[in-house]
Design a protein that fits this description.
- By secondary structure, the protein is mainly α.
- The chain has one domain.
- It is 73% helix and 0% strand.
- The radius of gyration is 22 Å and the shape is globular.
- The relative contact order is 0.12.
Length: 220
Amino acid sequence: QLAEGVGQDIVNAAILALAFVMLAWHVISASRHGMQAAGEARQLGRAVQEGVSTPWALIVAVALSVLREGAETVLFVTGMITSTGSADLAASSGALAGCVIGLVVGSVAGLVLYLGLSRIPVRRLFAVTNTMVMLLAAAMASQLARSLIQAGLLPSLASPAWNTSQLLPMESPVGTVLHALVGYDAQPSGMQLVFYAAGLMLILIGTRLMRPAPRRPLPA
């Protein structure tokens, strides 16, 4: 097997490393250009509302932003229905019903989020979303350490550093959500904690270095 049987762990580590770099760069670049992009988007929306600009630019931008995720969803559902075969009509019907329910729930959730987020100041919204993405990037760094430990390329340092399986199991709904959002692990190793903290520090330092300097008033 590839790399003495640890090829899958190495591939996973490479994917997680790439994900961390992309998320970290998103946070760092957003700290410098995020407000400018928000201002441009606000100007475009205002121009469309006032009739100065056609809504097609806004429509195309929104369509392109959801095209990738929508295409993946369609392919996934099509493959799932196809794999059940024509004989398993109940499974196919259940999959289609789930798609319809998911579409309705997603539409309602999107509307609720829009009505709520539209009333939040843009600066505060960017701060919250950047914090969430930063924690997600740190979670990717922690999982990267886990893959490297499984591949035998890093020591675990302490395994586990703690065990909260009885208090909050990974398989519970709350544990699953926290694992996806902030990288919660009921039994993390010491190396995972090091990678998590190092990921946060790298992003914070990069954000501080890339943040635009405050404008000084011109001398009279």
